[in-house]
What does this fold into?
Amino acid sequence: KDFRRIATRYDKRADIFLSAILLAAALTWWIN
It folds into this structure.
């Protein structure tokens, strides 16, 4: 159970990280 909890937490963090990268890339592309 603990491992699954950590895994889901890591997945959420990874999704947020990935979306942040995409957002930054979109912003830089929009500015340029």
About this structure: The mean pLDDT is 85.
